[in-house]
Design brief:
heterodimer, A: about 80 residues, alpha+beta, Glutaredoxin, four-stranded mixed sheet, 4 strands, globular, B: about 375 residues, mainly alpha, two-stranded antiparallel sheet, about 70% helix
Chain lengths: ~80, ~375
């Protein structure tokens, strides 16, 4: 189970990132919980300079773009492997 | 024929001789040589570029052929010349936009806001403002990221004035506007726009920096605590990924602006064909000292797409409006928009927002006067 956070104030790209992330993780059958962080001071707390940001297990993996699904799956699998140890 | 399509975040090429699409990778099954994904991506982009050049050069003959041969209209008729203008200009601007946005986005994939912040760290006023304005133009950035970027810059110790130079330059020198100016008026006017936009951003940032406005930034900005884990975003991209992203944002941008281009050019074509020169020149032709401030006052609350405003501006220019007035109008429409001010209000107090609008508006008015003076 990985904990996924979408950092963004609700712009179109944030919604697209959420949809892409869900689609990627569903297709790879990786269990996850997804929360959206929309408060600007909390977003800024992650140290990103551009939205949307993608956070997995409290680590920023991507900021300011919508990464390819293969990347999202790869990051999630890395986090899963790390937490299994 | 070549058809490039974009599907689900992957470069998709169909019907290109020798290429076949397989599992998200471009493979060249009929060619005996083995190519790396990078080589394949370059070959594809090269082919697309060649098709682009051929298409661009056949626009005027094609427009002439359709209007004068197929439809049998006379070049002297109002409708014929308006239609010809429309059929030539719409594909020309759309081709220019697609090609140049693609190139610009590929170049931009080498710059990230994180790198920009590292570059600007520790720079003093002056040099810092010049660099910030330049980076504001080239850093990929959308207005919904203005707030995190502002906080990130200020929090890392970049002076307020330098940060604002970045924030002014970014919308002011708009890549769509730049390309449209290039396509409509040539490189001199495009360069003029670039240089004057940068100048307003540099000077605006310096002025606001000198006025010591730090206490008019919302307090929470200085209290934000960044967690220890620094973003480890993958900034090293492969060439196919760069092309992929560029294709995706080109599709986004052109998809968003094309209706404005079509409507803008249709209005332009109508005026070009039907409205007699004398009518508009009568209203707008007489240059008065107040024409530039008036253009800015009208332009600031107006929030239009750069792509839609330029064809109209180009026609106004044809009909006798001075270049400085027209540019000032366009810059005030593009640089100062209500949606962006609302976004910035979350980090800037009203007085600083007011100062921001005031300084930029005055800068644009001065640019307008200057051009009218030099070129008038």
């Amino acid at each position: 189970m990985i904990e996924v956070k979408i950092l963004g104030t609700g712009c179109p790209n944030c919604k697209r990132l959420e949809a892409e992330t869900r689609a990627a993780l569903d297709s790879a059958q990786i269990p996850y919980v997804l929360t959206k962080v929309t408060e600007i001071d909390q977003i800024a707390g992650y140290g990103i300079l551009a939205t949307p940001g993608l956070v997995m297990n409290e680590q920023v993996v991507s900021a300011g773009k919508i990464p390819a699904r293969s990347w999202i799956i790869k990051w999630a699998q890395e986090r899963e492997a790390a937490s299994a140890e | 024929m070549t058809a490039l399509r974009y599907k689900q975040g992957r470069l998709f090429a169909t019907h290109i001789q020798g290429f076949e699409y397989k599992e998200g990778n471009l493979s060249m099954s009929s060619l005996p040589l083995r190519h790396s994904p990078t080589a394949r991506a370059f070959i594809l982009v090269g082919i697309a570029a060649a098709v682009w050049v051929v298409a661009y050069n056949s626009l005027q003959p094609a427009a002439d052929w359709i209007t004068y041969r197929v439809l049998g209209l006379s070049p002297e008729s109002h409708f014929g010349s308006a239609l010809n203008f429309f059929l030539y200009d719409v594909p020309k601007i759309l081709l220019l936009l697609s090609g140049m946005v693609f190139v610009i986005t590929v170049l931009r994939s080498f710059v990230t806001p994180e790198q920009t912040r590292r570059w600007l760290g520790g720079r003093r006023e002056g040099v810092g403002n010049v660099l910030a304005a330049a980076f504001g133009v080239i850093t990929p950035f959308c207005s919904c990221s203005a707030v995190p970027l502002f906080i990130g810059f200020v929090e890392s110790g970049i002076p307020l004035g330098v940060t604002l130079s970045f924030l002014i330059a970014s919308p002011m020198v708009n890549e769509v506007a730049l390309i449209m100016l290039l396509g409509t008026f040539g490189w001199q006017v495009a360069l003029l726009y670039l240089v004057s936009g940068l100048t307003v951003a540099i000077l605006g940032g310096i002025v606001i920096g000198r006025l010591r406005m730090e206490r008019h930034v919302e307090g929470f900005v200085y209290q934000v605590k960044v967690r220890a884990n620094t973003p480890n975003t993958d900034s090293r991209l492969t060439w196919p990924e760069r092309f992929d992203q560029a294709l995706s944002s080109t599709r986004d941008i052109v998809g968003k602006v094309w209706p404005f281009v079509v409507v803008g050019i249709a209005v332009g074509a109508f005026i070009h064909g039907f409205v007699p020169d004398a009518a508009l020149a009568e209203i707008l032709g007489k240059p008065a000292w107040w024409s530039v401030p008036l253009a800015v006052v009208v332009g600031v609350p107006l929030y239009a797409n750069a792509a839609g405003i330029i064809p109209v501006v180009s026609v106004l220019l044809d009909k006798g409006v001075l270049l400085g007035t027209a540019l000032a109008f366009m810059m005030s429409v593009v640089a100062l928009s209500l949606p962006e001010m609302i976004i910035l209000r979350r980090v800037l107090k009203p007085r600083l927002i007011g100062l921001y609008i005031g300084v930029v508006a005055v800068g644009i008015v001065l640019v307008g006067f200057l051009f009218n003076l030099i070129l008038g």
